Recover the amino acids of this structure.
């Protein structure tokens, strides 16, 4: 079918406006698909540049090797220290950050006077907007020397410092998402509980919180995603040595491993860095999948 | 009344309430501490010389004029590219799309994008824009990387405000004989301009605070350039400059000066977004 026939068949010939409308529709469709295209490009590029090194080094040796010596005469590329550091660091940040965020969210959702709530929302917005390097800078000048003095370790740039910085950085998203979930709980639930004789505090924690639990869980998963993907702030406070993780040792995360060597890497070392990024990407995709699952189950309930 | 609540229950309630207050105070104190500490350490070092000159090894002075300019360039370049794409995508999702599957696919993609850490954007940006498109390490490569990062933000805020445009506006315009594109251009878009502006402000905030994605794509040179020339060469934004001065050169005073500028901008951006939010709420309420 040639173009002329096609135009006639679609009725564009008699109606140029329709052609125009359909073209505009097409343009918007293409713009809409830009996001899909970006995700595809990111995935494909990471897989293409990350897989070869994994197979050159050997998947088991790469993932479970405990020594990373990329610039040694006989280089070794084991990223288990980075994986474990990322997991421990994230877990630590969650353990510290989530309870604080959770209780603050309950207060803001249920007990706070209007003025306090407005001020706190601004506070949380600022906390979320502070660039990660500023957190890193403050961590470098306060946390790192502080940890050295308080715990008597030779260098304060440790996993512990990174955990505290991460805990602060996940606070805003934990608070915001839990807050939205808590506020979405129908008022009738609480009224019923109050009518049965429960105190208001009991109602908030035994009725409202369980009703909002899928939203609060979403907040936790979101916090995990934030923590595992953070690079610059923890690069400045974690010391950046490829040790197996330990609370008061200098450590390197998956993200900081990539960031710290990228600028001077070459050859297999560079390819291995892309493989690390691929592993990180897999973690993030798993977290995304969990988030998506939570969202669909939450949607069904309504 | 007090008799009916047993001691255990009352203690539990007090403990829970105390935990809430402690957490709230912790969050407030943390925010106040961050702002005050950074401003306290940084503000004394903000001098005209710092703001208006470029670094000179001859005179041993450090100026952040190039970094300020680079930041402005990168914000403009990113917004110019991301706005049409993001707003267009939102319009497609809200006005045109009829196929449920396509909508779900696009929304899923946008959500995935917003979850990807910036260091991965930096790597992929380096591979795609610096190497594959052979832009090299330039501001434009950095800006394009940021375009992908900010796409979900613009899409989401625009879509949210598109949803608040009453259906009757569209129906009225259709009834007067306007085509779909004309309705969108003359009725729908002007009504949701607030949402688009909010998206822009949020994006500016993200661009200002971004460092990991720019380190490998835009580099860290400190040269004063014009806009076009600047986009074609490497350059550090304020945030990247902060990182370089703090962790590679040990210039903490300069780093804190930059941090206090960023902190002030963060507060302004947050005030603006909450103002925009209130504006939109008021309009929807009427």
């Amino acid at each position: 079918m040639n173009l002329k026939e096609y135009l006639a068949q679609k009725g564009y010939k008699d109606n140029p406006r329709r052609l125009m409308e359909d073209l505009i529709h097409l343009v918007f469709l293409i713009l809409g698909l830009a996001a899909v295209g970006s995700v595809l490009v990111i995935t494909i590029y990471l897989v293409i540049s990350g897989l070869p090194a994994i197979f050159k080094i050997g998947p088991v040796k790469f993932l479970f090797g405990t020594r990373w010596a990329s610039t040694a005469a006989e280089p070794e590329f084991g990223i288990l220290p980075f994986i474990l550091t990322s997991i421990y660091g994230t877990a630590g940040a969650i353990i510290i950050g989530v309870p604080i965020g959770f209780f603050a969210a309950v207060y803001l959702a249920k007990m706070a006077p209007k003025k306090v709530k407005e001020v706190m929302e601004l506070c949380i917005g600022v906390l979320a907007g502070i660039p990660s390097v500023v957190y890193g800078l403050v961590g470098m000048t306060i946390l790192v020397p502080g940890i050295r003095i308080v715990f008597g370790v030779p260098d304060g740039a440790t996993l512990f410092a990174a955990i505290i910085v991460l805990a602060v950085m996940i606070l805003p998203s934990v608070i915001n998402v839990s807050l939205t979930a808590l506020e979405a709980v129908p008022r009738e639930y609480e009224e019923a509980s109050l009518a049965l004789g429960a105190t208001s505090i009991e109602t908030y924690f035994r009725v409202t919180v369980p009703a909002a639990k899928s939203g609060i869980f979403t907040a936790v998963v979101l916090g995990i995603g934030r923590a595992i993907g953070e690079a610059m702030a923890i690069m400045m406070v974690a010391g950046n040595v490829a040790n197996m993780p330990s609370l008061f040792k200098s450590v390197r995360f998956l993200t900081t491993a990539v960031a710290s060597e990228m600028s001077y890497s070459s050859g297999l070392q560079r390819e291995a860095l892309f493989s690390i990024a691929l592993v990180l990407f897999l973690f993030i995709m798993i977290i995304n999948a969990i988030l998506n699952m939570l969202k669909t189950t939450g949607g069904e309930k309504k | 009344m007090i008799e009916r609540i047993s001691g255990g229950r009352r203690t539990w309630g007090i403990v829970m309430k105390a935990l809430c207050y402690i957490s709230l105070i912790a969050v407030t104190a943390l925010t106040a501490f961050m702002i005050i500490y950074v401003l306290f350490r940084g503000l004394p070092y903000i001098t005209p010389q710092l703001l208006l000159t470029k670094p000179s090894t001859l005179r041993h002075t450090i100026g952040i004029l190039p970094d300020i300019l680079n930041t402005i360039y990168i914000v403009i370049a990113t917004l110019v590219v991301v706005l049409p794409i993001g707003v267009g995508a939102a319009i497609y999702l809200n006005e045109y799309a009829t196929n449920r599957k396509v909508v779900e696919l696009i929304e899923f993609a946008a959500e995935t994008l917003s979850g990807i850490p910036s260091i991965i954007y930096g790597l992929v940006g380096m591979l795609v824009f610096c190497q594959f498109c052979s832009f090299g390490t330039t501001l434009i490569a950095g800006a394009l990387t940021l375009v992908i990062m900010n796409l979900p933000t613009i899409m989401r805020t625009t879509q949210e405000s598109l949803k608040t445009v009453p259906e009757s506006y569209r129906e009225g315009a259709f009834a007067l004989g306007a085509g779909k594109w004309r309705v969108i251009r003359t009725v729908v878009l002007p009504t949701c301009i607030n949402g688009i502006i909010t998206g822009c402000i949020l994006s500016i905030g993200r661009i200002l605070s971004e460092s990991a994605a720019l380190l490998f794509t835009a580099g860290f040179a400190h040269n004063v350039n014009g806009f076009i020339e600047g986009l074609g060469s490497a350059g550090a934004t304020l945030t990247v400059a902060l990182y370089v001065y703090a962790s590679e050169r040990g210039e903490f005073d300069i780093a804190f000066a930059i941090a206090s500028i960023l902190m002030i901008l963060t507060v302004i951006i947050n005030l603006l977004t909450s103002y925009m939010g209130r504006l939109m709420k008021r309009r929807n309420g009427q």
Remarks:
- The two ends of chain B are 44 Å apart (CA to CA).
